[in-house]
Amino acid sequence: MVNNPALAIHDLYKSYGPVDVLKEISLSINEGDFLVLVGPSGCGKSTLLNCIAGLEETTKGKIEIAGRDVTQEPPRDRDIAMVFQSYALYPTMTVAENIGFGMKVRGESKAAITDKVAEVAGLLQIAPLLDRRPSQLSGGQRQRVAMGRALVREPALFLFDEPLSNLDAKLRVEMRAEIKRLHQSTGASIVYVTHDQIEAMTLATKIVVLKDGYVHQIGTPEEIYDRPANTFVADFMGSPPMNLVPAEVSDAKLNFGTGQSLQIDSADSSSVSAGKITVGFRPELMELTPPEADSIPVTVDMVEMTGADSYVSFKLGNKAVTARTPGRFHIGEGGQAGLKFPAQSLHYFDAETGNLVS
Prior knowledge:
Blueprint: E1 7-16, E2 19-29, E3 34-38, H1 45-53, E4 60-65, E5 68-69, E6 80-83, H2 95-105, H3 110-124, H4 139-151, E7 157-161, H5 169-186, E8 190-194, H6 197-203, E9 206-211, E10 214-219, H7 221-226, H8 231-236, E11 243-250, E12 253-257, E13 260-263, E14 275-281, E15 287-289, E16 296-305, E17 309-316, E18 319-326, E19 336-340, E20 347-350
Parallel strand pairs: 3-8, 3-9, 6-7, 7-8
Antiparallel strand pairs: 1-2, 1-4, 4-5, 9-10, 11-12, 11-14, 12-13, 14-20, 15-19, 16-17, 16-19, 17-18
Helix pairs in contact: 2-3, 2-4, 3-4
């Protein structure tokens, strides 16, 4: 028996007049996957979600849900449930009525609705709120109700459109954990849109990074973080983002300028050609020590204490970079430090295309 993907998109385009908003989109997820569409504002992620939902017509391409071609199907026939950032609750209905409304419209029995609403309310820990109206709820409680209304559907695919963007920072963290727990307990297939790369990294089993309507990389959170396909992904995914510094390759050395150079690791030497290159490295994979003979000399520009970590800023060549060091950093601003990199912690990107070389 062949299991069809929960979602498969083939060469999808979406245009508004002469403007192509989505281009060459192809991706798929298996049943139980949590796919996160991430990218900056205007990259096309919400448009893609609306195409999956049937709220936007596609210009070209095919969309399959659970093995069924739904490209021309209206939203009601796609076997999906959607959770919006605005909650979209009925203000005159109670929580229980909001959650069970879809079942009522489908003509299911009162007993079935009551049982299902109670089950979902228990799962979302909102059972004590069932008799309240939306105006009596906090933002986090409203979002739980919106999720409950989607869960009673038991669809082939759940679609989340930036569901946490209206919540404050503390509540976002709590609800992020709630959504992750919900996914683990239900095994639901989810497509989730966000511009927040922390949400993407913590929730996803698979991430799609979009920019200007194109897919720039598809992979697990670990793949996206550890081996970004290009400088855009490297700069977008990570907090702080990956440092990207221009360098010149000569005699198996990286020359950053201003007397700063580094021997290229022997494992990378065969794939890094002489000439200009962009070197990438994560802030937490940099080692700062008092100046040593085998380290790159740097001058500390600024130290930011965050409690558990310190962010140390300095220049490599003419580019400002940031290192993330555990605990307190004891070399003050204006002081001299030595920079080292663990083996194979550097990424090399083509200076012109920005694509990963090694």
